[in-house]
């Protein structure tokens, strides 16, 4: 059984073909990084226009690389939210056309659900239930995952997502876009312990996050140095900022494991590719004797292979969408109170 998956929730156009829920035949991503770099961030209108430009040739290339014709595809799945509305509409409209033209099932996939399921593309798969820490440019949240399509929100950011905070701090420091990778690279040459920065929400009960205060602390630190006529120690500041974010993520994830009496943690989302975060969680897993599951970096950032995994499990359950499928910008997750 072959599923073709489309992902256009933000600024990456992606297409993948998955066979029998596990074997990736093709997994292509057309990045818009160069397009948005000159603006220091994603411009939604430009993103949707670029999706429209590349989605057809990218899908044709995916089929060619898999040595398949469209008539050999059994279903098409697509991200319909959360994300940028203009970007989502391009992918959903294209998927509808494919499904209608070939008279095959159309499957709607939640972007966050798919990020959580990306780990099932790896050889080592987590048992249910598990705790998932999803960290990306648009989302930072903890979930209690009972099954492939059944997951509950434990806590989420009250303001900026972790990836968003990285980008905003990078912009403040004039480092360019995308900020996360640039900060991480500079942080490798800095001392993370020289500049004291807050660890927001660690003194609060529950599993919510907040990164706007940390961002403000960086702003105040930089402004104070400028008033004194001093230069900003960029490498040390990047290292201190990255360490602060990672420690908050680690502590909240561990708290969720303890509260649920769970020994299995899955890391997901674009920021899951961050080296310090991965190494910190590996060390914590050894220290506290829990099992950590990490998707490969290529499955952390937005891709269509993870959408295909989600679509496959919906296909098995007969959860198909109609041609009036709509898109949504924000997710409304079921909350689990502990």
Q: What are its keywords?
A:
single chain, 338 residues, alpha/beta, Nucleotidyltransferase, domain 5, 2 domains, 5-stranded mixed beta sheet, 11 helices, 19% strand, globular, cytoplasm, tRNA N(6)-L-threonylcarbamoyladenine synthase activity, tRNA N6-adenosine threonylcarbamoyltransferase
Description:
There is one protein chain. By secondary structure, this protein is of the alpha/beta class. The chain folds into 2 domains: 132 residues, ATPase, nucleotide binding domain (Nucleotidyltransferase, domain 5), CATH 3.30.420; 171 residues, 2-Layer Sandwich (Nucleotidyltransferase, domain 5), CATH 3.30.420. The protein is 43% helix and 19% strand. The longest helix is centred in the last third of the chain and has 27 residues. The relative contact order is 0.19. It has a 5-stranded mixed β-sheet with strand order 3-2-1-4-5, sandwiched between helices. Helix 5 crosses helix 6 and helix 6 packs across helix 8.
Q: How many beta-strand elements?
A: 10
What is the count of DSSP helices, taking H or I runs of 4+ residues? 11
Rounded to the nearest angstrom, the radius of gyration is: 20 Å
Strand order of the largest sheet: 3-2-1-4-5
Mean pLDDT: 96
Q: Quick one: CATH class of the largest domain? A: Alpha Beta
Provide the succession of SSEs.
EEEHHEHEHEEEHHHHEHEHH
Give the name of the CATH architecture of the largest domain.
2-Layer Sandwich
**pLDDT under 50 segments (min length 5)?**
none
Q: State the helical fraction.
A: 40-55%
Q: Which band does the percent of strand residues land in?
A: 15-25%
CATH third-tier fold name of the largest domain: Nucleotidyltransferase, domain 5
**The CATH superfamily title of the largest domain:** ATPase, nucleotide binding domain
Biggest sheet features: 5 strands, mixed
- What spatial form do the alpha-carbon principal axes imply? globular
Find the structural class using helix and strand composition. Answer: alpha/beta
Termini distance?
A: 40 Å
